[in-house]
Amino acid sequence: MGKGFGEHDEEKIGFRSPGNYRAERGSGSASLPGGGWALRLGAVDPTLFRGRRERKLGENVAVRLERVRKRFGDVEVVRGIDLDIRDGEFFSLLGPSGCGKTTLLRMIAGFEEPSEGKVYIAGKDMTGVPPYRRPVNTVFQNYALFPHMSVEQNIAFGLRMKGMAREEIARRVAGALELVNMQGLEKRRPHQLSGGQRQRVALARALVNEPEVLLLDEPLSALDLKLRQELRVELMNLQERLGITFIFVTHDQEEALVMSDRIAVMNKGLVEQVGATEDVYELPRTPFVARFLGDSNLIPATALEPRRVRTPLGEFVLDEEDALTPGQEVLLSIRPEKIRLFRERPNLPNVFQARVDDIIYTGAENQYLLEAGGMRLTVDTLNQDILEPGHDEFTYDEAVWVAMTPEKLVVVSETGADGGAPA
């Protein structure tokens, strides 16, 4: 890792760069025993440098949840979830604290049994199957390392419990240490490691068992921002190299967007929306998803015609793909970065006037808080030396023209777990 983490030079270590080697299922030099991951030095996989949305995922279902419910006493924390997670997918369960995402992960792991419904892993019903007999391993938020054991002893613990031969354990542990680039620190105890290093040991301990599915319960939340950002990329690269399914629990929206192939947004024990990261961000189905996954301006609207609505900001026209029933009440969602501001009235649809109530400088952006039609709107513009039309800089209390083009407005008509009609 680069400088700036406050660690000694020997501790500045991360996962190997994707250009150094790739890991693949099968046999080969330096392979882990039992047909495990082979580390082939010098081999470069060009697919690692593609965007995640270009990746081709397996068609097989790695994990299937069918009408899964979980009750603790009279409280139902998971409320009938159906979900398919594909083989080789980086899948995130995203939601606020108390939404049921960790409970759902624990049911996949076998630490909790569903009150109703079924969990399938690799097509097999996991009802009554204990955690140690499931083809999964879990990386916990608090690392869960044994403080009295060294790095190599922690990594080898599960293998020893399985009664594996000493030579085989040694080979697997060496391979796992190389995978997370922790060679040379085998004899250290957890208290002698940085937070990032402890998380790598926890990851190596999970991967040494060669699971079909790796479960990660907010593994980065205890780390500082800079280290979290670094480890995000490393986890993504590691998952692509290994090709196994990662199920990642987080409350961090940016983390989920950066790392995932698909996201399930959870709220009050339900999955409100599941889909590719870009689809969920750009096309939220419920008010909760629009607000929780990034910032969003939600504007109440009543349909006058299939593509024309009345709002507190005036009458708007919608995109051709939207077709409403006259009288239908909906919410219109628009992201702050999709709104354009002008000093002079532009020749664009859906234009209205607003007043700049506040300006927040965030470094890369200026965030404008506007007042219009009794509503408060948020607009984000990039700080740049060369300003483009619609991205001028404005001052406090200035009157501005606001444009919301039809293709940037998203009709939100579903209510989600919060219930009630959109308002």
From TrEMBL:
Keywords: ATP-binding, Cell membrane, Hydrolase, Membrane, Nucleotide-binding, Translocase, Transport
Reactions accelerated catalytically: ATP + H2O + polyamine-[polyamine-binding protein]Side 1 = ADP + phosphate + polyamineSide 2 + [polyamine-binding protein]Side 1
GO annotation, cellular component aspect: ATP-binding cassette (ABC) transporter complex
This enzyme's EC code(s): 7.6.2.11
Broad enzyme group: translocase
InterPro entries tied to this protein: AAA+_ATPase, ABC_SmlMolc_Importer, ABC_transporter-like_ATP-bd, ABC_transporter-like_CS, Mo/tungstate-bd_C_term_dom, P-loop_NTPase, PotA-like, PotA_ATP-bd
UniProt xrefs under SMART domains: AAA (SM00382)
Domain of life: Bacteria
Region described as Disordered: spans on this chain: 1-31
GO molecular function: ABC-type putrescine transporter activity; ATP binding; ATP hydrolysis activity
Composition bias, Basic and acidic residues: 1-14
Keyword DNA repair: no
Ranges where the ABC transporter domain occurs: 63-293
A Pfam family of this chain: ABC_tran
Family per record: Belongs to the ABC transporter superfamily. Spermidine/putrescine importer (TC 3.A.1.11.1) family.
Record text on subunit structure and interactions: The complex is composed of two ATP-binding proteins (PotA), two transmembrane proteins (PotB and PotC) and a solute-binding protein (PotD).
Function of the protein: Part of the ABC transporter complex PotABCD involved in spermidine/putrescine import. Responsible for energy coupling to the transport system.
UniProt protein name: Spermidine/putrescine import ATP-binding protein PotA
Organism (species): Calidithermus terrae
